[in-house]
Please model this.
Amino acid sequence: MKVKYYLTSSGRSPVEEFILDLPENTPLEIADAIALLESGQRLEMPLSRNLSSIKPGLHELRFRDKAGQVRVLYFLKKGEAIYLIHAFRKKTQAIPPREMDLILKRLKEV
Model:
């Protein structure tokens, strides 16, 4: 299934920009995980976590670098594509409310 980046109304890709700004090998690790998704592989913990309690089809890719934890959220839209909708540095156990609001807004747009 094709992987697509969420695009703003102006055509920017905030997820792609976030990933490209990450240090070290983290962008390469994320690219590898995206390639696995695109090839149809089902990813499991610890690399990917199902977030269907928020919305069916929502998952997060989980990475760690020297600065901490990185999350890339993706949405499986059946018969269409896999959308990378949000990426952020995770500093707490739960997804912060500001990040959750953005995730839910972008889910409505894809």
Observations:
- The chain has a mean pLDDT of 94.
- Residues 37 and 58 are 13 Å apart (CA to CA).
- Strands lie at 3-5, 48-50, 58-65, 68-77, 81-90.
- The helical segments are 14-20, 26-38, 97-109.
